[in-house]
Write a structure and sequence with these properties.
Structural class: alpha+beta
Distance between the termini: 16 Å
Radius of gyration: 28 Å
Helix content: 40-55%
CATH topology of the largest domain: Creatine Kinase, Chain A, domain 2
Shape: globular
Number of domains: 3
Number of strands: 18
CATH superfamily of the largest domain: Glutamine synthetase/guanido kinase, catalytic domain
CATH architecture of the largest domain: 2-Layer Sandwich
CATH class of the largest domain: Alpha Beta
Number of helices: 22
Largest sheet: 9 strands, mixed
Bound molecules: adenosine-5'-diphosphate, magnesium ion
């Protein structure tokens, strides 16, 4: 066990509030702080002073370069390093960094996805400093979190719409709070993302082209043991993994990331890391960094960290739980039930806003987590179904029922529910029951959105969630602000929302077949099973109207995003398909052939020595494997054709449908026969490490 002085190293590579307060002049600090806390426009005059202190601090801490760090629509972060050096007249160099360089960058944007937003000749893109997320040092480079937009000002990244959605929610939530007599400086959403991942041995990883090219195994028969015994979940952490986690924590803490909980997950070789929650924008940046550093640290320990949603068939894949809430500048959590009736009424209204948002914009939430990788998990009885619903737990459900029916609430006190009336009972946070099958669950003082894939940026779901909740709140504020009798209007409103949106509430088993029936046939909830089904809904009229009204996106940006996400889906699957045909032709078929030939020769030599020997094992295996090689070869050709014909689709939506209906089923078919052959072939002849080796080789 390494000795670490955690408070000392925590945030040591971050230009955080402590550093700013210590190094910036009083005026500059106050002005910057106002921008950070209250979302006031940045006073550009302070940039020079901030840049100069940032540079000094960075250089003192070993940095030689700086970069505008941003999150293009590739899903990973991007950076281009510039050194601080400027030639000095004496032939040497000095370290320089100007306010202009801090505020604005002009990277060549032509190789980032833009979904038709920008012709390639308009290559220019801009990055602009996001002062609300602290700059930090990574690999001797000062990283400045930035937003990224095109020459025409359209957002080309995930941060910009996320920040806009936070502003939208802030605007509307403050209106509501004012009605309750609460004047606050701001309301922010907070997020704690629980991150799952796999760790496998690096040598094994490198032997598998499917893992190298696609991050997941495309073939592989199940080993005799998988996750049946539930012996891995919360199990004792293996020494090599412990060493990795120690190293990882240290790196994350230095970057000011609040890494808190770590444990083994359900599948063999699967683990989880959860930080303490923070403001959504910061949590998003931190989660991107966490994923990056996990991969880097794993390599150092001769392992590879797999962030793919479904690296192995037959055992659980990896997801991410987005714990989400809203809080005021004074730290009051708006989803905390509170102690007094009046707080309860306010809580119930915010609760209603979330319920309505999830119901009205199920499709947006679903598509915000849609990727080729995550399609393997949702609805596969290891993660929530593709149908979005809300779990409230018994207590809150009973309270809402009581309000809806004007009946006594049976819980604490037997009183008629009338909001704002003194008799409204107290209720405490519901901590007893949990429901792992629900996509969107209330967990005491926050909601947990559980449908995210492990490699997803959490920006996507949070921008949709924030915007949708802002829309509910806006409708409520519009109605209540002019109401002659606030309390009775509030009561009516809450009743109405419960009546209208109770179809989204479901406390039962989300994995059951009956739920799918009920949800889709009786309740009319949407069941968007794949990315190809979900993504086009981004452009549904109601969604475009809501997202543009709250200025989270422009219509142009939405069109481009839909295109990019579908393109990403098609390209991802297409790479997988090509990897499969490649592996089948170049590795699997030749290896099985070799084994067949060995068996044939063996049979011949046995018969030469013992002419009466039946050789039924050898001949039987030859017959079975030879039939399988024929089928594998045929299925490979069929998959190839399906991949080829994607080029003929007239648009990206059609291509994505062909991927879903034609390519993916053919990949499954090919895999089935290769996996069958694996079970019959001498391991010495099999070209790639087996599932057993991949899943159980790290100690
Ligand atoms: P559970 O065990 O119920 O999942 P935890 O308390 O361990 O809950 O929290 C899981 C995650 O939720 C952690 O990242 C935690 O920081 C985060 N979290 C807790 N409270 C909030 C909140 N008010 N807003 C957002 N995230 C929160
Ligand atoms: Mg949790």
């Amino acid at each position: 066990m390494k000795k670490q002085n955690v408070p000392e190293i925590f945030g040591s590579l971050v230009f955080d509030d402590r550093v700013m307060r210590a190094r910036l002049s009083g005026d500059v600090y106050a002005s910057l702080k106002k921008t950070i806390d209250e979302n006031v426009r940045l006073d550009e005059k302070i940039a020079e002073a901030v840049a100069s202190e940032m540079r000094d601090w960075a250089v003192e801490n070993g940095a030689t370069h700086f970069t505008h760090w941003f999150q293009p629509l590739t899903g990973v972060t991007a950076e281009k390093h510039d050194s601080f050096i400027t030639p000095s007249p004496d032939g040497g160099v000095i370290m320089e960094f100007s306010g202009k360089e801090l505020i604005k960058g002009e990277p060549d944007a032509s190789s980032f996805p833009s979904g038709g937003l920008r012709a390639t000749f308009e290559a220019r893109g801009y990055t602009t400093w996001d002062p609300t997320s602290f700059a930090f040092i990574k690999d001797h480079t000062l990283c400045i979190p930035t937003a990224f937009c095109s020459y025409s000002g359209d957002a080309l990244d995930k941060k910009t719409p996320l920040l806009r959605s936070m502003q939208a929610l802030n605007r509307q939530a403050k209106r509501i709070l004012k009605l309750f007599g609460n004047e606050v400086k701001y309301v922010r959403t907070s997020v704690g993302p629980e991150q799952e991942y796999f760790l496998i041995d690096k040598d094994m990883f490198e032997k598998r082209p499917d893992l190298v090219y696609t991050g997941r195994t495309l073939f592989g028969a199940m080993p005799p043991k998988g996750q049946e015994l539930d012996d891995h979940y919360f199990g004792v952490i293996k020494p090599r993994v412990t060493a990795f986690m120690e190293d990882l924590n240290e790196e994350l803490w230095k970057l000011g990331i609040l890494a808190k909980t770590e444990h083994n997950e359900v599948a063999p070789a699967q683990h989880e890391l959860a930080p303490i929650f923070s403001t959504t924008n910061v949590a998003t940046d931190n989660n991107q960094l966490t994923m990056e550093i996990m991969q880097k640290v794993a390599r150092r320990h001769n392992m590879v960290c797999l962030l793919h949603e479904k690296p192995f068939a037959g055992v659980n894949g990896s997801g991410k739980h987005n714990n989400w809430s809203m809080a005021t500048d004074t730290g009051a959590n708006l989803l905390s039930p509170g102690e007094t009736p009046y707080e309860n009424a306010q809580f119930l209204l915010f609760l209603c806003a979330v319920i309505q948002a999830v119901d009205d914009y199920q499709d947006l939430l679903r598509l915000s987590v849609a990727t080729a990788g995550n399609d393997h998990r949702l609805g596969a009885n290891e993660a929530p179904p593709a149908i979005i619903s809300v779990f409230l737990g018994d207590e809150l459900t009973e309270i809402l029922e009581a309000i809806k029916n004007d009946t006594p609430y049976k819980g604490a006190e037997k009183v008629i529910m009338k909001l704002g009336v003194h008799a409204l009972p107290r209720f405490s946070r519901d901590t007893t029951d949990r429901n792992r099958t629900s996509p969107f669950a209330f967990t005491g003082n926050k909601f947990e959105f559980r449908s995210l894939g492990s490699s997803n940026s959490i920006a996507c779901c949070n921008m949709m969630l924030n915007a949708a909740v802002a829309e509910s709140l806006k409708q409520y504020a519009d109605r209540l602000e002019g109401a002659p009798d606030f309390e009775s209007s509030l009561h009516e409103l809450i009743k109405e929302v419960i009546n209208k949106h109770e179809r989204i509430l479901f406390n039962g088993n989300g994995y059951g077949e009956e739920w799918i029936e009920e949800a889709t046939k009786v309740r009319g909830l949407s069941n968007l099973k794949t990315t190809a089904d979900a993504m086009p809904h981004l452009l549904d009229k109601k969604n475009v109207e809501m997202l543009t009204a709250h200025k989270v996106f422009t219509e142009t940006e939405l069109n481009s995003r839909c295109e990019i996400m579908l393109e990403n889906y098609c390209k991802t699957v297409s790479i997988e398909g090509h990897t499969m045909t490649d592996m089948a032709r170049k590795n699997y078929l030749p290896s099985i052939e070799e084994y067949l030939s060995k068996l044939a020769k063996t049979t011949e030599s046995i018969k030469a020595v013992a002419p009466n020997a039946k050789c039924s094992y050898e001949i039987g295996t030859i017959e079975k494997l030879s039939e399988l090689t024929d089928i594998i070869s045929e299925k490979t050709d069929i998959l190839d054709k399906a991949l080829d014909s994607l080029k003929e689709c007239e648009n990206i939506k059609k291509t994505s449908e062909a991927v879903r209906d034609d390519v993916l089923p053919k990949m499954d078919e090919l895999r089935r026969y290769v996996d069958e052959a694996e079970m019959l072939t001498d391991e010495k002849y099999w070209p790639f490490p087996s599932y057993g080796k991949l899943l159980f080789s790290v100690y």
